Structures are given as structure tokens and as C-alpha cells.
Write a sequence for this structure.
């Protein structure tokens, strides 16, 4: 499964949710499908996308929140999984695209390519629902179930280590940030 | 434990009076009463962290979602949060109200705190983060209000250093 195909497969299901992505390929690919005011791309602060999602989810408990994370980012903030689990916001779906590499900076392998299984790490951290998908059908089913579960879910999607040719888009960081804040003010 | 309950209450009351409803924290000796106050207050969501940098992300999300927050940490927690502060809060113009216990300055008896105490203000200055020292109980409420006002008008982090004079009652 490619991450782009996975994003395309759930794109229409992101309506009405606050969406936070990590930087690099995930941000560029979601924008390539079509930017929307409810999407926020954390273009740096590696590891903190799930923490931003937690802050939104705790502040607006009735708003569905989706975080598109990555294996390199999760590994950089493993403690954040324990904080997510501790507060387990029912309105948060935490997707981890696991391509077993730091693709955006040369494709060097992460520990998930050799031994670490992030869905099990999340479960051991105390995340109440976890799943691991390796095909588009599995991913779409697991994502849909997570959206309806009303229980914190970490969904690991095993994806190919391929991405877009370039990462810079014409959407300014601050333009995105203020547009997203205004979107949240309406919710 | 000679951490000042009275002055911890002053700090907590000032944060609450300024609309702070979410506090992130990682325990340290000087913060024990503040953290307990936050934990016991049904109007305040206390988020206990594994590492302080998470608190930057949580405060970013809270701010974008319209929630006023504050971060309670030791100066070593601030030092551990710098990438998040620079490439999160500064890059995205997010107001952060950081209350940082200023361990390792004059009067410190724990040898392991002394390096952090020597560099904290220099690092804050290097990041051009406006900083005030809280050392006079009579001015705490005013200083916290002024700091929060600047954080929100500038859309940037501010730091309030919780000093030994304020937090520690040992003579």
C-alpha cells in the first residue's frame, strides 16, 4: 500500500474532523489530494503532531480529531504515546504511517524495519484500541471503525517507502496555521 | 518540605484568574503544590507529561482550539523542550506561557542543578523569549497577567522564572 493511496481512500472521511499531519511526505501528499481549512500540517517540531492532536482533542472534546503521524516521528516522542494513553481522548484517531524509514531525509531505516512493532508499543503504553493494516481495504476498514469507536485508537498502516518528489508547497505555514485556527473557532 | 504553599497558591490563582484552564506539568520539587492545586481543581485540566517538550505540542493544539494553557516545568525541562519551542511555537507563532522553576541559581545546594541554573536565562535570551523573574509575592498576579497579555498580543512564548525567593521558604 502507498501512503498516497491510503490518504486518498479516507480523504472523504476527513470532513468535519480537525486533521493534524507531520511534516514532509505526509503533508505534501495530503495537500496534493486537496488542501482544506480543517487540515494543519506541522512542518517541523518532529514528534509533536500527536501532542498537538491531544491538545486539540482535550480542548474540544466534541470535535473529532485525526492525526497522521509517522514511524520516525512516533519513535522521537515515544513518551507521548503514554500521555495519549493516559488521557485517552475518545475523539482522537491516531494514524501512524509506518514506512520503516526516514524517507524525507534519505530513506535511512528506522527501528520499525528491524524489530520494533509500533501497534504493540502503543497497546503496551495503554492505548485502548490499536490495529495494524497492511492493505488498503484493511486500512479503510480499521480507520472507519476507529472513527465510530469513540475510543482512542492508534492505527499503524504499513506503507511503501516512497513519497513525492518535493515537499515545499505554495501554502504558507502561517497561512495554514491561522486558517486552521479560524476553522476551529467555528466548531 | 519547605516549598511555599502560600506562594504556589498565588501563582495558581493568578493563572486561573487569567483564564488558564489547561496546565501541562512534569513534577519537580518546587512545583509540587502547584501541580496538586491543578490536579484538585475541577475547572482545570492537568496533563501529566512524560517529557516537557510534549507540553509545547499540547499547548499549541490547545491554543489553536481556543483554550488558554500554561506549562509548569523545571529549567531542565525547558532545556529539553527547545526544539519544540523553536520549530513549533516560534515557527507557528503560538503564545506559550511557560512557568519555569529556576533551579541552580544562588542558594542552590544540589550540585546537579548548577549547570542548568547557569545557562537558563542566556538560552531564553538567545531565543528572544521575553522573560520575567517572579520573586515578590506582591507582584506575582500582576506579572503573570502582563506576561500572558504579551504572549497573546505577540503570538509568541513568554517565560516566567519561579525563583528560590518565591518558591522556597528555607531561611
Amino acid at each position: 500500500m502507498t501512503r498516497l493511496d491510503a490518504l486518498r481512500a479516507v480523504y472523504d472521511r476527513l470532513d468535519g474532523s480537525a486533521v493534524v499531519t507531520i511534516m514532509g511526505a505526509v503533508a505534501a501528499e495530503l495537500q496534493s489530494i486537496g488542501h482544506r481549512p480543517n487540515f494543519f500540517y506541522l512542518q517541523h517540531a518532529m514528534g509533536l503532531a500527536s501532542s498537538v492532536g491531544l491538545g486539540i482533542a482535550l480542548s474540544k472534546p466534541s470535535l473529532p480529531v485525526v492525526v497522521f503521524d509517522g514511524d520516525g516521528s512516533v519513535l522521537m516522542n515515544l513518551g507521548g504515546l503514554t500521555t495519549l494513553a493516559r488521557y485517552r481522548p475518545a475523539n482522537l484517531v491516531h494514524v501512524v504511517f509506518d514506512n520503516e524509514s526516514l524517507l524525507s531525509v534519505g530513506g535511512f531505516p528506522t527501528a520499525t524495519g528491524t524489530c520494533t512493532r509500533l501497534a504493540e508499543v502503543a497497546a503496551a503504553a495503554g492505548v485502548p484500541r490499536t490495529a495494524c493494516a497492511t492493505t488498503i481495504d484493511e486500512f479503510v476498514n480499521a480507520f472507519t471503525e476507529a472513527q465510530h469507536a469513540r475510543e482512542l485508537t492508534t492505527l499503524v498502516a504499513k506503507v511503501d517507502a516512497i513519497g513525492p518528489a518535493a515537499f515545499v508547497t505554495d501554502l504558507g505555514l502561517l497561512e495554514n496555521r491561522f486558517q486552521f485556527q479560524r476553522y476551529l473557532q467555528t466548531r | 518540605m519547605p516549598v511555599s504553599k502560600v506562594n504556589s497558591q498565588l501563582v495558581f490563582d493568578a493563572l486561573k484568574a487569567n483564564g488558564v484552564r489547561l496546565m501541562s506539568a512534569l513534577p519537580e520539587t518546587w512545583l509540587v503544590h502547584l501541580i496538586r492545586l491543578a490536579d484538585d481543581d475541577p475547572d482545570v485540566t492537568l496533563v501529566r507529561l512524560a517529557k516537557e517538550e510534549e507540553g509545547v505540542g499540547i499547548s499549541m493544539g490547545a491554543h489553536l482550539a481556543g483554550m488558554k494553557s500554561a506549562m509548569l516545568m523545571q529549567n531542565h525541562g525547558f532545556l529539553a523542550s527547545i526544539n519544540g519551542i523553536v520549530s513549533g511555537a516560534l515557527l507557528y507563532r503560538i503564545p506559550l506561557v511557560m512557568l519555569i522553576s529556576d533551579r541552580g541559581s544562588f542558594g542552590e545546594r544540589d550540585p546537579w542543578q548548577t549547570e542548568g541554573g547557569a545557562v537558563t536565562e542566556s538560552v531564553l535570551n538567545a531565543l528572544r523569549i521575553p522573560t520575567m523573574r517572579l520573586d515578590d509575592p506582591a507582584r506575582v498576579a500582576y506579572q503573570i497577567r502582563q506576561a500572558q497579555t504579551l504572549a497573546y498580543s505577540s503570538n509568541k512564548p513568554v517565560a516566567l522564572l519561579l525563583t528560590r525567593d518565591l518558591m522556597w521558604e528555607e531561611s
User: Anything to note?
Assistant: Residues 10 and 138 of chain B are 9 Å apart (CA to CA). The two ends of chain B are 13 Å apart (CA to CA). Chain B touches chain A through 30 residues (CB under 8 Å).
